[in-house]
Amino acid sequence: MLFAIDFKSGLPVYLQLVDQVRYAAAAGSLRAGEPLPSIRALAEELRVNRNTVAKAYAELESQEVVETVPGKGCFLKDGNSPFTKQVRQKLLLKDIDGAVVTAHHLQVDRETFLTLVKERLDYFERKAGGER
Question: Is the pTM of this model over 0.70?
Answer without folding.
Answer: no
